[in-house]
Amino acid sequence: MQESKPSAWDVEALLRNLLRTGALQALPTHPHVLDTLLALATGGLVRQRPYAEREVNEVLSAWLESVHGEVDHVTLRRRMVDLGFLKRTNDGSRYYLNSGRVNGVLGDGAVEIDVGAMVDEIVREREARKNAYGDGG
To answer: Does residue 94 fall inside a structural domain?
Structure first.
């Protein structure tokens, strides 16, 4: 039985749980959660465009920075290749986004989620709660 694609709301709920500390501390181990995260991390890559490794690293580093990631871009890139989100030429000189894999994981609207903005919102909410508890007692 094939799992249905998550709605944007489902993806947001999953991410809020994963990023509840305000940072991506590690790659998730649950396959569905990992797939969703990796699919979202491809957001800065363009379909059918060849990328040098350096370019992929730059895109992934920027994405990791936006989510306050404690994971390194090399680990992220390797997992994306291993799980089919990125394709690599036989000689390893070029990478391509596997948009079919991304679309197979994310439902309509979920691709548009700004994970970095969500992390910023989570951090603001955490700070507001801390301030409320600190001021109230």
So the answer is: yes
